[in-house]
Design a protein that fits this description.
By secondary structure, the chain is an alpha+beta fold. It is built from 3 helices and 2 strands.
């Protein structure tokens, strides 16, 4: 079976804590979890569409914001 969002969040936080100071690439199925990362890359149609900090990308008119609000 699959994990609920709360369980996924706990696992994600644990891995981020363990990898502190090291690079980590994570593919997210829940776009709102991008808030846990220092830098966010947003792909669209197989290409890099946006990159930056979560707060800068989670604004109206940005793809990440659209993904979060449609989730």
């Amino acid at each position: 079976g699959s994990l609920d969002g709360a369980s996924q969040g706990k696992i994600l936080e644990s891995i981020i804590d363990e990898r502190a100071g090291h690079g980590l690439i994570w593919v997210l199925s829940r776009p709102q979890q991008a808030q846990f990362f220092d830098r966010v890359l947003v792909m669209s149609d197989g290409r890099l569409a946006e990159q930056g900090k979560f707060d800068d990308l989670n604004v109206e008119g940005k793809i990440l914001h659209d993904l979060i609000t449609s989730d």
